[in-house]
Each structure stands twice: as C-alpha cells, then as structure tokens.
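Think of the structure tokens as a kind of shorthand, similar to the way a musician reads notation: each symbol stands for something richer, in this case the local conformation of the backbone. In the example below we present two proteins back to back. Begin with the first one, reading the sequence and then the tokens, and try to describe in your own words what changes along the chain.
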Amino acid sequence: MRYPDATVSSPGLLLWTAIVLVVAFAVPYVCADRLDLPRGAYVAVLTLASVGLWAEAVVWTGLSVSEVLSWHWLAGLVLAPVVALVPSAGITRMPVTRVRHGGQLAGALSWDAGIYGIAEGLLLSALPAFLAWNWVVALGLDGWVDTLARWAAPLAFSILVIVIHHVGYPEFRHPLGLAQASFACGILTLGYLITGSVWTPTLGHVLLHAAAVVKGNALPPHSTGARHTVTAP
C-alpha cells in the first residue's frame, strides 16, 4: 500500500476527522430521518457532500484530484469486482423487496447504483482511509509499528465512519444492521488499502449497489418513509 506524497498538519487532520464524522452522520439523519427527502433528492445531497468533501480534502493535502484519480487506477479497477464479490453475494441471498424492470431498472442502475455508489464509496472508504493514512505518516512511526498502523488506522477510522453514517438511517439502528454494513463496506476499504486506488472502493460500492438493485433489494433510505429493516448497505 502506498499513496502519493502529501504534506499535512496534525491540527488540520483533527479538524478534517471531525468534519467527516459530522457530515457522515448529519446527511442521513437530517435528510433521510428528519426531513424524509425523496430518494432522488437525498442521493443528490449525499453526492454533493461526499464528492465535495473528498475533493477538498485531497487539495488540502497538497495533491490534485487528477493525481489521486490516476494513482494505480488499473489495479483499482481490477480489484474492485473482487472485493465487491463477497458482500454482493450476501445481498443476493436477502429477500426481494423492490423489483424493477425496463426503464425503472436502468434508472436505478444509473442513479442508485452509479451515483449513490460513488458517493458512499468516497465518503465511507476512500476519504476516511486517506485521512487516517496521512495521520500515521504525520506521526513518523518506525518499523513494524508504522506498517501495522498504516493498515489498522485507516480500516478502523473507515469502520467508525461507516457505523456513524448508518446510525443516521432509522433502518440501521440495531447491532445486526450496523455489523452487516461495517463488514460489507469494510471489505471495500480493505481493497483501497491494498491498491491505494480510489477506484477500488468507489467502483466496488457501485457494484455492491448494482447487485442490490438487480436483485430487488431496497437501498436506504426507504422512499416510503417506513421504518422497516433495510436489506442492503
């Protein structure tokens, strides 16, 4: 695992950590739970927040968005389907709740899978792992401690963001739902740590959402506003 060289400060990283946690929780809690926005509006808000936050964080570290997008891009594209395979297989075993055909299916694949998947891939895996990795670099650790921290810290912070984000959805406020979301999204973060490519978690999340859409599982938030158990992260 290796990322482009970046120049960061510990106080700045602390602020970015707080911002990511607040945004990860506030968007689903305010927009999905409190305001109960329609799915299209919710996905638009989440995407603007996720993409904007990730791009700003990249620029803040002294890198460019194009540099990060091109970093190990081929390895990222190759590994993405692999890391998405296990959580996608789990989704296909869940009950069918929302079947789509024709134009509805095409629209859901482009919006719920494509746009929504990219937004969550950036917010839940790429951004927290990138920030935590820079935390470890800033600490200047040595030897095996540094190696261990470069794997453990990004994965741990990503899982924390995943949990905080899904607590914002009423459907996920139970241990099993949070554990399922952490496992599924955590695998995508692990793929990011292996390749260092932002394409691994983003494309992986797109494929994960696509599996849910094709199978007929409802992604959060439920547009009906019903507080029933969610079937896919």
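Once you have a description of the first chain, move to the second and do the same.
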Amino acid sequence: MQRLLEWDEQIKIHLMWVWGGEAGFTKRGREGMLVITDRRIAFISKTNMTYRIHDVYSRRQRIRFQRNENVFRPIEDYSISELRADLDKDSINVNLEFKKMVKLDIERKRWGTTLMVEVSDEGKKKTYKFSIVKSWVKYPAKDPLQFEQIDWSPVVTLFRNST
C-alpha cells in the first residue's frame, strides 16, 4: 500500500451498515463502513472506532432513513487521520482511489440498490459492490436480510466532479 505523507482531502460521506466487497462468484461480502472523500472510496471492515461510537452513528443513520433525511454526510468523530489509521490497520480494508476507477454505477434491484465500482490497478480490473443493510441475521453467521433502497447519485456526482 502506498503511504502518503499528507492527505489533502476531506471526508464527504460516511455510511454505516454497509455490506460489500469484491464482486465474484466465489467472493463473500462482509460488513463494514463506507468512507468517501473527495479522492477515494474506502471500505473499512476492521476499525479502531469504538463499539459505542459505531453504535451511536449506526442508530443515527437508521433514524435518518426512517425520516427520509439525507444520509450522505460525514460523522463528527471520524477524521482523515482515523481513516489513514484504519486503512493501515488491516489489508482487509479496501482503498479505492478515484484516479484508478474506471466506472462507477448504480444497480437497482427489487431487494435494494447497489453501488458498483470498477477499478483498474496494474492492468487488472476488479469490481466491488456496496449496499446498505436494513436488517441482519446473526446466527450462524452475520448476514444481511434486507437492504435499503437509496439513491447513490450523490456518490456518483462526487466522483464525476472530482475527476
């Protein structure tokens, strides 16, 4: 992973309860949070964020969905320095820079909407899928039961305006 001395960017969007990962037949999604800056999309599965802070912001996001309010916003207790630390914490966390993105698309299904991100890195193309979960089943393994129907266009617009 390329280590940058200074990150001159701002967090624009922070979404909790995201199910995502690399798309593919043998690939399994995982729970995480999506942090979107003006230069990258980061999918964080392993974080230094405390459970209490994560729980508070997850509940706030749930209330915003119920009230049809804007969920595309940053959270107060998470800055660029926390994002950098989380990306360095574990290789399971995904850093998708806008300059390596080939395509950003929205897939609408009956069960929910998905943000599709196609990345080209060193000549290899990979596709990632991200959806926001509405409810979970926790046994035998944590898996999503229902997904949110959201309009991902603010993310696509941010990407297009940044490139």
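Compare your description with these statements about the second chain. The longest strand covers residues 124-137.
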